[in-house]
Hints:
By secondary structure, the chain is mostly beta strands. The chain contains three helices and 18 strands. The protein has helices at 12-18, 22-30, 56-61; strands at residues 64-74, 80-91, 97-106, 109-119, 125-132, 135-143, 149-157, 171-184, 187-193, 199-207, 213-220, 225-233, 239-245, 254-260, 266-273, 276-285, 292-299, 305-314. The chain starts with 11 loop residues before the first helix and ends with a strand.
Amino acid sequence: MPNAGKRGCGCPETTQMVKQGAMWLMWMALFPCAVFAQLIDNSRGISLVDDHRFNPAFVRANKVSEISGSFSSKRESDIIRESDENITYEFDRAGRLFKVETSRMIRGQREFNAIVYRYDSDGLLLDRIVADIHGATSYRYTYDDQRRVISETCSRMESPRDTLSTTGPKRTEIYTEQIRYTELENGEKRTTYNSYDKPYKEEWLILDEHGYLREHRTRFITNNRMSSVKYDYNERGLLSEKIVRANMSIPDTLHFSYVYDDAGNLLEAYEKLNSESIRRIEYLYDEANWLMKARLAKDEATEFIRIAQYKTAFFE
């Protein structure tokens, strides 16, 4: 993949990318002039199914207020077809994501779903509200003096409306879980307690001598089911691989790999189940302002391609 700063229309690097397959030929036809920029936060490794994590520092520095996306798709031997689905990401002036809203047409009516985030004055996430046409579910968090989550309270709301109100709609508390920490020589252990104050989940976060997260292990106490996520990094300290075993009693392994340019911008991501390729993605950014312009994801088995195109709005 060519360097971001040297990419342009008709250059040898672009020609080489087009030769990689029809997916990339269509990509360049749709977006002939684009470069890559450091908007996506890939510190923990994105999944490849519409999973976005934005870099708050980049969003704040560029005064981004909103990113809106529309979708289209292409099946094998078919034309590109527009979708009625839309998504909007809204940010505050500190660069923090505070609302994600999706909409689509269902039986002739547009249906909206939203996730709303509330923060305290120190930037800690206090409340995550997931709303749909039936109501809303709230997840509220408290923290210790090291800014670690020590409790999560799940509540159901009677109405998804007015979720941004300071008081909010009436809540019915469903459960509260507590998290307790044990310091380890090479990381920390987290133990999660249910509403009956019984431990049910243990997690180990293993760090290397430089502070990089190398492994996140989880064990469910009652059935002893264990999972593991391992992380590897390139020479610049950027995440290059993530290996996921959701159930360590079976051999299936998900392998994610990430490719960057010389400036550390995420260019490509690949996902494999064991040795079989599942999907891949690429991001494209506008060369005028280096903001996200499009995202293309391909399912390798079906050759179904999902295209997202984005527009950005700014604070004055």
